[in-house]
Design goal:
The chain is of the alpha+beta class and 674 residues long. The chain has 17 helices and 25 strands. The chain folds into four domains: 172 residues, START domain (Alpha-D-Glucose-1,6-Bisphosphate, Chain A, domain 4); 59 residues, Helicase, Ruva Protein, domain 3 (Orthogonal Bundle), CATH 1.10.8; 165 residues, CRAL-TRIO lipid binding domain (Phosphatidylinositol Transfer Protein Sec14p, 3-Layer(aba) Sandwich), CATH 3.40.525.10; 123 residues, Jelly Rolls (Sandwich), CATH 2.60.120.
Length: 674
């Protein structure tokens, strides 16, 4: 197993010569690195004119490992060979170190470099790379790998501290500057390679504001100041992974200006838990997607449709207390069907991508304004008005498609999601949607139910200044609302749905019976259609074996009225023989004894749509019951219905973080929505 490490460029705001004098003081030992027991000089050679010096050392290091481990390998110390090549003329120090102990079982190679800053000759840069190749180490390869990572992290953190310590020591002794090397006045032209300032710039690289260097194929100059200002707190290992992924991208791209920013690379790494091998292909796919879809031009080219301007209930709204831009989406007041019928699935996706691009732009602006790292934005979702109507199948399908696209191409751009005024129906919607959201993103959701407005206000004020919390949470003006059908342009959604429904009905043999084993969500296709004459009933039986699973339904009534009731039955049900006779009309059925009305009867009129849900708390039969009291002149009443069963495992998971937001009876109550 081979581990590679690379640190960002560290900048000392002191001249190279002063840093070198401080560096020499760390030998043979220094108090900041107690693991180094001794450094013996093996050879020390220099050029006649004093311009170069080559020093070799043999360093003794204590084994920083548990006692039992040291006993097993039989050593208390290990030895490293270090070769330092100091070039005063070009103001560089190159250091290479390899392990001498156990070299046949493990190879450790480290390369460090000090050099004059390419932009400021009075500053000094330092960078460091290392590889750890464990071939065979007494069966402790994994332990050695962890110790190697730990040691690299410690030495990286200590390195700058040591130099600063000895520079302060020099200052205390009155040494604040050291003369630069100059060739002797009478010396012949030296054979030492002299680099022009242009050559030095190309070798060492110069970083612009994004940390991207100018030059044809330079190394990466990513210093600590840039990280602190633009990327935030990173561990040495995380910095190493960031540089590794950036270098891989650099090797694939000739034009450095097309490389993504360090902030973007960082987001993809975090989304893949810092696994470079996993982040690289995903990031490359995203860059290809951006190019193929001209995403970089979206902010300039996108023209907001009038229906979005007038009816879409979302927009940017100031910043939270951490400097994140806030986007407010009043999802409960969004006409999903109207939007899709007006701008189509592609239009809704393009609107979502435009919002994401705006978010990335506002993140940059906030970071520059604050002079501190801001890497993501805040989403405030208002669910007031949310009902089962929002779970319209084509709408859910479009939403899941958008989530998938955003998760793939804008990972870790969402820093916090505040969900407010979550109604009773929300756990059902959350169960469906959350399965498509990345685990890390899902952990950023914070929910507030409708039970206690004061709790919601106090909760929001933890993240947003009170004067910036929108008034509509406390009864102000509404936005969004139904989109007039005169603005509808898209018929394809309805046609596709009707075609799919016709195909489903063609192969259907509906007998009004269904069984739930509680293992998975039970999907029964799209809507099914039945016609009910006067006095006829239609009943669907759900044989529930999964306590706490959730039954949801959605139906439309056409040409007449229907009475809808949900029953629970504790005895076995016979085969239904007569469409005009209900189970509950049979002699051996008695309400309150062996069957119970779980939901109050709802009278549904012509052209009404009804959605609802119910938590099935018993291993009994549940019956969806429709009764036609009378029919109009147009003929039998038509019922178009769909039902679905959500497993208790998913439902409980969605409720865990919501319990404080709902009243005690909300989890077991139906939500009838028209």
């Amino acid at each position: 197993m081979v581990q590679k490490f690379q640190s960002p460029v560290r900048v000392y705001k002191y001249p190279f010569e002063l840093v070198m004098k401080a560096y020499e003081r760390r030998f043979p030992t220094c108090p900041q690195m107690p693991i180094v027991l001794d450094c013996e000089i093996i050879s020390d050679e220099g050029a006649e004119d004093g311009s170069q010096r080559n020093t070799k050392r043999r360093c003794t290091l204590a084994v920083d490992a548990p006692y039992i481990f040291k006993k097993l390998i039989g050593v208390e110390v290990v030895y490293f060979l270090q070769n330092n090549f100091l070039d005063w003329a070009n103001r560089t120090l190159n250091i290479e170190a390899v392990n001498e102990s156990f070299s046949s079982r493990i190879e450790i190679f480290e390369r460090c470099r000090y050099y004059a800053h390419p932009d400021n000759p009075d500053w000094t840069c330092f960078d460091q790379t290392a590889t750890l190749d464990i071939k065979n180490f007494f069966g402790f390869e994994h332990s050695m790998e962890k110790m190697g990572m730990k040691q690299y992290t410690q030495t990286t953190l200590k390195g700058k501290e040591i130099i600063e310590y000895f520079i302060n020591e020099l200052k205390a002794e009155g040494i604040t500057e050291v003369d630069r090397w100059k060739p002797p006045a009478d010396a012949a032209a030296s054979s030492i390679s002299r680099q022009s300032s242009k050559d030095m710039e190309q070798e060492n690289g110069i970083a612009d504001v994004n940390g991207v260097k100018r030059g044809s194929k330079p190394e990466i100059l990513l210093d600590g100041d840039f990280i602190a200002k633009h990327l935030g707190q990173l561990t040495p290992m995380q910095e190493s992974k960031l540089l590794e992924l950036r270098k891989m991208l650099e090797d694939c791209e000739e034009d450095l200006s097309k490389l993504p920013s360090y902030q973007t690379i960082l987001r993809f790494l975090r989304a893949r838990d810092w696994h470079v091998s996993q982040a690289l292909p995903v990031l490359k796919d995203s860059l290809k997607w951006r190019k193929e879809n001209s995403i970089d031009d979206l902010l300039d080219d996108y023209k907001t449709p009038a229906v979005v301007t007038e009816h879409f209930p979302g927009g940017w709204h100031h910043y939270d207390k951490d400097g994140r831009p806030i986007y407010i989406l009043r999802l409960g007041h969004m006409d999903v069907k109207g939007l899709l019928k007006s701008i189509g699935t592609e239009g809704l996706l393009k609107l979502s991508l435009h919002i994401c691009e705006e978010g990335v732009q506002k993140i940059k602006q906030s970071s520059e304004s604050l002079g501190a790292p801001v890497l993501d934005w805040c989403l405030l979702v208002d669910l007031d008005g949310l009902s089962m109507r929002h779970l319209w199948r084509p709408g859910v399908k479009a939403l899941l498609s958008i989530i998938e696209c955003v998760e793939s191409n804008y990972p870790e751009t969402m820093g916090r999601v505040l969900v407010v005024q979550a109604p009773r129906v929300f756990p059902i919607a959350w169960t469906i949607v959350s399965a498509f959201i990345n685990d890390n993103t899902r952990s950023k959701f914070i929910f507030y139910g409708v039970a206690d407005a004061n709790t919601m206000k106090e909760g929001l004020e933890q993240y947003i200044d009170s004067e910036l919390i929108p008034d509509f949470f406390w009864g102000g003006d509404m936005q969004g609302g139904l989109i007039p059908k005169t603005l509808y342009k898209m018929n394809s959604l309805e046609e596709d749905e009707q075609a799919e429904q016709a195909q489903q009905n063609k192969g259907s043999n509906e007998h009004g019976r269904a069984t739930n084993n509680g293992l998975n969500s039970d999907h029964h296709g799209l809507y099914k259609t039945v016609e009910l004459k006067t006095g006829y009933i239609h009943e669907v039986v759900i044989r529930n074996a999964d306590v706490k699973s959730v039954l949801t339904w959605d139906f439309d009534v056409i040409r007449g009225d229907l009475h809808f009731t949900l029953y629970r039955v504790t005895k076995d049900l016979p085969q239904q023989q007569d469409a005009a006779v209900s189970f509950f009309d049979l002699n051996d059925f008695s309400e309150g004894v062996n069957y119970f009305k779980e939901e109050t009867t709802l009278i549904c009129h012509h052209k009404e749509s009804v959605q609802g849900s119910h938590v099935m708390n018993y291993k009994n039969n549940y019956v969806l019951h429709w009764f036609s009291p009378s029919c109009g002149a147009e003929g039998a009443t038509q019922l178009n219905y769909f039902y679905e069963i959500l497993s208790s495992a998913n439902y409980k998971g969605s409720m865990t973080s919501l319990q404080s937001g709902f009243s005690s009876n909300s989890a077991t109550s139906s939500c009838q929505s028209r």
